[in-house]
Every structure is written in structure tokens, then in C-alpha cells.
Amino acid sequence: MFWLALLAGFIGGFLGPLIGVGGGVIIVPMLNLSGVAFQAAAAASLFSIVVTAITSIYNYRGVIDFGLLAKYAAFSMAAAVLSAFISVKYSGSWVKLIYGVYLIAIGIVLLIGKRPGRTMPWLGYLLVFIGGFVSSLFGVGGGTIFVPALILLAGLDAKLAAAMSMGIIFPTALASTATYAWLGALDLSLAVLIAIGSFGGSYLSSKYIMPRLKSSSVKKLFTSYVFAVGAYYLWSNLSLALS
Residue 107's CB: how many other CB atoms inside 10 A? Predict the structure, then answer.
């Protein structure tokens, strides 16, 4: 499990900067399909997201509106705590089934590649809440939901929305991790190993790979991966339900 945790964290951290999403969608399936309980995999992934998000917030500190951020983060954190509690207390195959749907939805978003073009505050707040909920439930950063939410809320351009999204991801992941730990679902040694691997992967990717590589081909491969893993979770859980 030592090398698996390091490898999962490294791959997640390496691909994250290239494709613009968190590594949780890679880390959680790798751990879960290798025998780690889904909630434990999600909790460990969220811990690594807390660690890596600190670096992103520091890098984006000049453009993040922290006053505005606090208002949005409150919605997301409340959803994250609720989600972690539900995941642990009422765990079951339904979580994996919904996760399969979520992965396929992410794949569709990446495939379409479109962003909302006008503000719709009511929908933006709803998406922030949903982003916090799924982030905690599935052990992911939630940037694929937070970025469009911020565009709908405040009309931010995509680059600024991405920076603000990292600001929301940090307290959301922190609240989720604390809740999982309180409920006894966080394996700290596993989480630390993933965080170490994730830091190494993200450092290597952002410093040496991103300046030299176009992300379009990587994004296509990643989209295929998301569809494949999502289909696997859907098929395995639907087969179990029908048997």
C-alpha cells in the first residue's frame, strides 16, 4: 500500500496542472479499486488536496478576493461537512453508483469544453453548494463545478474563476478532512503518503512539463479515462443491484 499511495498521489498531482482538474478523480479510483474503502480513499485524497491547495492559494494571492471568497466558501463548507457525515454514516453501494454518474458528467463537461457566458447568481450559489457536497463525498477538489459557478455568480473570466476556485477548494477540503477524521474514516499515514506523491507530481508537472507540452492530448486521454472508470463503477454497481 506504501508504493500504491505514493504512485496514486504522484499521478494525480502530475496530471492535475495539465488538465485543470484536481487529482482526486485519479487518486480515489486507484485506491478504491485496489481494496481501500471508498470513504477512506476519499478522506485521504481530500487531505492531499488541502496540502496542495495551500500552494495554489499562495501563488494566486494577488488576484483572489478573500472577502468575496469567504461568502462563497461558507456555502461550500456547510455542504462538505454534511456530505462527509452522510458518506460515513450511511455508506453503501449508492455512493459508488453516484460516483460513476459524476465521473461521466465530468467527462462530458471536459468533452464539451464550454463555459457559461452570463451571470446567474441563484444558479451559481446552488452550484457552489453542490460543488462542496460532491467534493467531500467523492474526495475531489470540485474545480470543474466551482469554476462555472463563479462565472455564473460574479461574471468572472475563466482565469480569475480558476484562482478563486482554489480559494474555495482549500477550506472545503479542510472541513471535509476534519469531518472524516472526527468520524474515524481518515487513515493519516495513507493520506500523508498521497500528499507527498501529489506534491512531487505537481511540482514536476508545473515546472518541467507544462511549459513544453500542449495539454490537449493529455486532456483527451484523461477524458477517456474518466468515461472508462465512470462506466466501470456504473456497470459493477448496477450488476450487483440486479443480481
Answer: 21
Q: Which three cell numbers mark 11? A: 499521478
CA distances from 82 to 144, 167, 234 (A): 20, 20, 24
Q: How far apart are CA 66 and CA 89, in angstroms?
A: 33
Q: To 10 degrees, the CA torsion angle through 143, 40, 108, 74?
A: -30
Cell (9 digits) for 151: 462565472
CA 198, CA 23: separation in Å to the nearest integer? 8
For the full predicted model, state whether its pTM sits above 0.85.
no
On whether the CB atoms of residues 123 and 221 are closer than 8 A, the answer is no
At residue 33, the 3 state secondary structure works out as coil
Q: Which of 226, 190, 204 is nearest to 14 (CA)?
A: 204
pLDDT tens-digit profile of 180-207? 999 999 999 999 999 999 888 887 876 7
Rg of the chain on CA atoms, in Å:
17
**CA angle, 69 then 74 then 80, to 5°:** 120
Q: Cell 487531505 appears where?
A: 47
Exposed e or buried b per residue across 138-151, where buried means at least 16 C-beta atoms within 10 angstroms of its C-beta: bbbbbbbbbbbbbb
